[in-house]
Amino acid sequence: MLASMNPALLLFEKILRTNSLSITNARKKVFLALLGNEPQSMRDIERSINKSINRTSIYRVIELFDKLGLIHKVQIGWKYKIELSDVFVGHHHHISCLGCGKVIAIHEDKSIERLIHELAATHNIQRPVHQLEIQGYCEGCVATL
Ligand SMILES: [Zn+2]
Ligand SMILES: [Zn+2]
């Protein structure tokens, strides 16, 4: 499939244009590195781009994506991994291992979503957004604790 036909990529390009930003090689490469993958560390992103863009440029692109709301930082302990935001991948949560950093995406759970919205309504908060991350140790890591 041609990359230009990918709907997420088309949406990405549209968002950049709407913000009067050009679609540079670096921006496109970082986006593609995040597309369809599990949450990525900065190192993962660098690796998949294969060092064709220097680290400073990658950080600058990530900073821009963050400002535009294109990405979401998944907190794992005091570190984080990056994934595309709900705009591209749909709302979901993660369970991650504090030992090895493995991240598992969990599909939307209607009862959790309902409870969060009810809580917001109880406190008179309109149009609530939220993040929910569950952390612990996977079987492999818990054995070494
Ligand atoms: Zn682990
Ligand atoms: Zn949720």
Helix-strand string: HHHHEEHEEHEH
> What are the segments in which pLDDT stays under 50 over at least 5 consecutive residues?
none
Percent helix among the residues?
A: 40-55%
Strand proportion: 15-25%
Overall average pLDDT = 90
Q: Alpha-carbon distance between the termini?
A: 45 Å
Radius of gyration: 17 Å
- Spatial shape: flat
Q: How many beta-strand runs?
A: 5
The chain-level structural class is: alpha+beta
Give the cofactors and ligands.
zinc ion
- Largest beta sheet, briefly? 3 strands, mixed
Going across the biggest sheet, name each strand in turn.
Answer: 4-3-5
Put simply, the count of helices is: 7
Would you write up a description of this structure?
The chain is an alpha+beta fold and 145 residues long. Helix content is 44%, strand content 17%. The protein contains 7 helices and 5 strands. The protein has helices spanning 7-18, 25-34, 42-49, 55-67, 86-89, 110-122, 139-142; strands at 71-76, 79-84, 93-97, 103-106, 133-136. It starts with 6 loop residues before the first helix and ends with a helix. The relative contact order is 0.12. The structure holds zinc ion (2 copies).
